[in-house]
Amino acid sequence: MEIWFALCLAANGGAWLATAVLVTNMRNFPLSRGAVAGILKGYSGLSAAVYTELYTGVLRDSPTSLLLLLTLGVPAICFLTMYFVRPCEPSLVETNAEQVHFMFAQMASVLLGVYLVGATVLDHVVTLNNIINYSLVAIMVLLLFAPLAIPLKMTLFPRRKGPSESSECSDNGHTEPLLPSSSESNLGNFEEYDSMDIDILLAEGEGAIKPKRRRPRRGEDFRFREAILKADFWLLFAIYFVGVGAGITVLNNLAQIGIAAGAVDTTISLSIFSFCNFFGRLGGGAVSEYLVRARTLPRSVLIICTQVVMIITYLLFSLGLRATLYVSVALLGICYGVQFSVIISISSELFGLKHFGKIYNFIALANPVGAFLFNTLTGYVYDLEVERQKAGMVDTDIACHGPNCFRLTFYVLSGAACLGTLLSTVLTVRVRPVYQMLYAGGSFSQPRSSAH
């Protein structure tokens, strides 16, 4: 019971932290949503490898010390940094400096990911003494905090900004509205109205009549109850259910899948999946940003591509061969990571940033729901095969061996990926006009407010 309660608190606490950081940064940088989602989710994917390096290099494989670090260290870091996670006045003008800063953060995260893979492999190949272990951890910490060079540089060497250009938090704590108010929007689009509309606007301003709020169009700010009535919302939910839910199912059973395929050391598979998952999250954000700006293509095009690759990947898994295991794990990690980050940006662009936290977190519920259903099927098929293999045998080994352990499961997951491909294609066709409106001319265009 105590373990269940601790896991419940940890899982929900992680969701709260992720929501606060993700929503705040998406609003602070509305013109670079793909890059923001990719970087934040990329570092989140690397966190397990970071803690593993601390566990083996500093804590000397002590579970008690690790739990103590998580209990005291994580809250301490949150208290020290929470002041800096706050809304800023977003820049509505793209600058070269901002693009360079995002590029620096992406390169730092890639370097950290490569370093963690190398350190993990080195730890498995040779026995390291304490001095080398501490040195490896120190280098990891330096790479982890490398992005702090950006705010330090902006503080020590501030850049003169024009009147329409601002993306930093004000020193006095006062922040401007993250989105233009209805009055500003009305005045900015005054020429779009005829004389009757002007009379109505003046009456609203004088309080003679109550302004009516029209239903938002895709790309504008939706309330949660408005978003759940849209087909695009449930298409995103279904795509998340099929793609990410199936991916987490494979991750949960990766050790058993490796044993069934004849792999001796399953930690290598986990390391490959972790790095490729990180690469997919970071690359998905960067590539989708290029697609929408240079080609005006919806980000969901990437989901179509990954779903097709996942069909082939699940069929490779169904062979149950050790020779194709690591390739399959790598492909699945990339596809899982791409979908994880791209759906964040899509939901913000279709339904706006004002209620992004509620809308995205509800869509994210498809992940555990899908994982639960697919895991139930996986466990049932696996147990049946174990009983069949052990029938009439006196053997203490309860593990399943051979391709039949997961073959039926991977056939089902491959079929689910086919369904995901179809749903992603439908979504792409539906939202293509939205992306042409938002990214006409190669840059993001803030849609007119729906408050009036």
UniProtKB/TrEMBL annotation:
Biased composition (Low complexity): 176-185
Domain of life, per lineage: Eukaryota
Keyword terms, alphabetized: Membrane, Transmembrane, Transmembrane helix
Positions of the NFD4 C-terminal domain: 229-435
Subcellular location field: Membrane
Pfam family, one: Nodulin-like
Residue ranges crossing the lipid bilayer per the database entry: 66-88, 100-119, 131-152, 233-251, 257-280, 301-319, 325-347, 359-382, 408-429
Domain Nodulin-like: 2-152
Bilayer topology term: Multi-pass membrane protein
Gene Ontology cellular component list: membrane
Region of interest (Disordered), ranges: 163-187
Protein's name in the database: Nodulin-like domain-containing protein
Organism annotation: Urochloa decumbens
